[in-house]
Amino acid sequence: MAIAVRLVTSDGDYTAWRQVRLAVVPRERADSAESLRAQAGPQLQFLLAEADGVLAGSGVVGKSDLADRGAVSARVLPDWRRRGIGTAILRELAERAAGMGFAVVGSNVEDAGSVRFAERYGFREVDRQVEQVRVIGGEPVPQVPEGVVIVPVSSRPGLWRAAYQAVGVQAFKDMATLSPLDISLEQWEREWITDPDAMFVALAKGEVIGCAGLLPDTDDPGRAEHAVTVVRRDWRRRGVAVALKQTCLVWAASHELREVYTWTQRGNDGMRALNTRLGFSTRTESLTMQAGLPLTGLP
């Protein structure tokens, strides 16, 4: 069997890459082909794997959201597993990550088979991400603190850029991650918002003090990812996060979503507790695994 791993180049390639992701990770939203093409570049590369010319898997390599490390992900369609395709993808990803200047790479895995595969090549667990899900029903009117106004980004598009400086940069330093998040303004505007109607900003005296929002799933209109909830330090524990999350849930109900889901770090007990108060329940955990380059055990 001839295995070929190559860079994604055409619109058809991006569609095929999404096809693999949706098959392997069906419970999560996938960026559109147009969004993937816009993100791609020297520091973010999408790959396809083919076996005798037939689509068998995919990969992605680039800068991690965590500072000073790369991120890799190898996915193989179920019918093609245990034939060396995952190893071939991982080898190519590791070489490209090294070429980008990274000495350490990370990856998120869920099932036991993927954990064993990663451990074979030197990856070790360093953190866990917890997925919580909320069934949408009749949602109560948000209880907004006095002096606070919550508006959708669509009403004032410039607010999203303002939110990056006012609350985003501060929150990245405070999140319970292995190292501070390294998110550029460009990433914030390109990747952290997809529908300005579904992203909300909290204002006090005209200043941004918080934001939260949903990333609707274009492949499954009945669900959305609850992607971000951040509040300025001097406004925390004053009901702003609750009001922002409730606003998101009301939006979800008004657009007939059946569920929203969110991921939090293992160490972020406060946010998980808040989500639980609002009716979220834990569905699964994802292991964050990390390895130094070059990887060990690769043939």
From TrEMBL:
<protein>
    <submittedName>
        <fullName>GNAT family N-acetyltransferase</fullName>
    </submittedName>
</protein>
<dbReference type="InterPro" id="IPR050832">
    <property type="entry name" value="Bact_Acetyltransf"/>
</dbReference>
<keyword id="KW-0808">Transferase</keyword>
<dbReference type="InterPro" id="IPR000182">
    <property type="entry name" value="GNAT_dom"/>
</dbReference>
<feature type="domain" description="N-acetyltransferase">
    <location>
        <begin position="148"/>
        <end position="299"/>
    </location>
</feature>
<dbReference type="GO" id="GO:0016747">
    <property type="term" value="F:acyltransferase activity, transferring groups other than amino-acyl groups"/>
</dbReference>
<dbReference type="InterPro" id="IPR016181">
    <property type="entry name" value="Acyl_CoA_acyltransferase"/>
</dbReference>
<keyword id="KW-0012">Acyltransferase</keyword>
<feature type="domain" description="N-acetyltransferase">
    <location>
        <begin position="3"/>
        <end position="142"/>
    </location>
</feature>
<dbReference type="Pfam" id="PF00583">
    <property type="entry name" value="Acetyltransf_1"/>
</dbReference>
